[in-house]
Amino acid sequence: MLEAKFGAKAKWSYGRNELTMPDGSMWLIQATSPAAFHGRSPDLIVVDEIWDVSADVIFNGAIPSQRARRNSLASFWSTAGTEDSKAFLKLREEGLAQIDRGETGRLYMAEWSPPAGVDPTDEVFWPMANPALGHTLDMDTIRDESKSPDQMSFLRASLNIWVSSAHSWVNPGAFEKLRIEAVPDGGVLAVDSSMDESSYVGVRAVKIDDTKIGVTVAFVVTSLADMWEHVARIAPTVDQIALTPSLESLAPLDLERKKTTVGYSELLTHTATVRSFINERRLAHTGEQQLIEHVNRAVGVRTPQGFVVSSQRSPGPITLTRCMIWAAALVARPQRKTRAAVAFRM
Asked: Do both 267 and 199 map to the same domain?
């Protein structure tokens, strides 16, 4: 089309497919390898199906090649991915974090998909993932695809659902129904880092009344310094701060009285308990989209020791889920009531 209608000169040779436009600009087809972008300085990069492109290609090849351009654009397109879609997951997590913070950054993210946690077999949600319905696609096509023996492929390619989320540890839609406007001050702050230590998150849980626990995202940051700054600000208002072993060893001395260590053992002990809180509507949250995503994508596995959410089996980060489980379980512990004592000296 560019050749026939816009005067482009085309070269069609093995390893060198390119178009030169009348104004001297070029369109190049590049292999998905970091080396393909070395020596280039493109104004525009378009990557299709980024779910199957490695993080090395995106972050060490494509994006750095544009650093000298004054008004560059990297445009990535894709259906949903899998737990191996590292680059896609990083970019999507940053987009969700910006939405929850109400910030406008250099990253623009738009997604067409059913709400997290709904029943994917319900046709009412299918148009949300298919804006081409009524134009180049009809509902009968999606119905035919839904009958495929490979249901994971249908969920990912036809409904834009991250595939392992079909095995979520909570029932579809259960967590979304538990939204509230706000939670009181106080309670427990749980802090964790992502597996690659590219982000640090905090979730605060507090008792709303004798039967219900409220949780809220306290912060999501990208550096250790910012994390400790948020912890220091929140510390005076909470009763306890739960830290993973790697963070606990670095905690400032003024947190000594409030800090406690949590890890896999506590997840193993409390995952089933917190799931019961959700099913029984005894847990509520303030509706942050990133928290909802993490909770719904978390995959639960049964081990000889018990039921636990698994970061390895889940299709993306579940750091906020882990923190929510730790914080809610600590808040739910019965508090020992102490009586005033008077001592006499004879």
From this structure: yes
